[in-house]
Structure to design on (318 residues):
């Protein structure tokens, strides 16, 4: 979508990036994939953690990963339907 | 004397049922569009929802007016077993004038709103002027019925053109069906004009309208429920 991204667009981009990576992603990768600054990434991560859409887990090498939870998958489905509704009705 | 009975007697009730089906479909779409607005905050989503709410209220006012005005007269006609032209005076006439003025205004507001959104018109003043002038002509013209349906048909044609034009660039069955739905609204408005010649045109118009809203409900179902 052209123009400035809304908060919903950013959350969608973040969750989709996690899903595209098989459900888990490193925070740094997410920052680049979702095209966010470090500060914004942390703000959104906090919000998504509070809303239980994602979770933080530790990997084998001590790296931290972000995983998508069921609520996050639900959000992606709803968002896709909303976008399709907007496209279909020319909004 | 004023003619308010457009439906043949055997069709009484069926027309109200068709209008109620239309109200349900329109309300569902309005509700979903408003739900999207609460997430997106986009004015387009909000005004799309308001336009559909206006159309739902238009159909609702039409149903209510029919119930208030001419259904009590149906028993009278059946009882007397005479095909007569009823005279409407006093309160009935006032209710008719007020109710159908509301129906026409809300329907026009709804259709204009959708047209404004799908054409992505930038000039708000233009749309206000056009809508204001059309409302004045429709509400105060001596040929209200004719002018209203011609105006509705023209706006619907504009909406259909936009949907089908954009369908060329992005082909989707749902979008095509939305185009068909508004095409049905367009044809129903044309057929309603002919109701002045024979009441069977009213039945045809209502049937086409029903087909249109079934197309719309199918698109809505495919996007929101099925997938």
């Amino acid at each position: 979508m052209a123009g400035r991204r809304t908060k919903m667009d950013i959350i969608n981009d973040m969750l989709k990036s996690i899903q595209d990576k098989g459900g888990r992603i490193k925070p740094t990768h997410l920052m680049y994939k979702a095209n966010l600054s470090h500060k914004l990434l942390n703000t959104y991560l906090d919000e998504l953690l509070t809303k239980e859409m994602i979770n933080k887990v530790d990997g084998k090498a001590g790296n931290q990963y972000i995983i998508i939870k069921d609520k996050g998958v639900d959000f992606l489905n709803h968002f896709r339907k909303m976008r399709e509704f907007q496209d279909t009705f020319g909004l | 004397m004023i003619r308010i009975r457009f439906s043949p007697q055997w069709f009484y009730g069926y027309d109200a049922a068709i209008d109620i089906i239309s109200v349900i479909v329109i309300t569902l779409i309005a509700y979903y569009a408003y739900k999207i607005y609460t997430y997106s905050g986009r004015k387009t989503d909000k005004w799309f929802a308001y336009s559909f709410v206006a159309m739902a209220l238009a159909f609702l006012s039409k149903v209510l007016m029919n119930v208030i005005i001419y259904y009590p007269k149906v028993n009278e006609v059946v009882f007397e077993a005479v095909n007569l032209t009823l005279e409407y005076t006093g309160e009935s006439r006032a209710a008719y004038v007020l109710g159908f003025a509301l129906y026409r205004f809300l329907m026009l507001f709804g259709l204009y709103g959708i047209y404004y959104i799908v054409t992505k018109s930038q000039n708000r003043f233009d749309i206000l002027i056009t809508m204001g002038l059309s409302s004045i002509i429709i509400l105060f013209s001596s040929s209200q019925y004719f002018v209203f349906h011609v105006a509705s048909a023209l706006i619907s044609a504009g909406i259909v053109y936009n949907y089908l034009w954009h369908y060329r660039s992005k082909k989707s069955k749902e979008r095509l069906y939305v185009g068909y739905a508004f095409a049905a609204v367009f044809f129903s408005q044309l057929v309603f004009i002919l109701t002045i010649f024979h009441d069977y045109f009213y039945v045809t118009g209502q049937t086409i309208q029903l087909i249109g809203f079934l197309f719309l409900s199918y698109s809505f179902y495919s996007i929101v429920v099925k997938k």
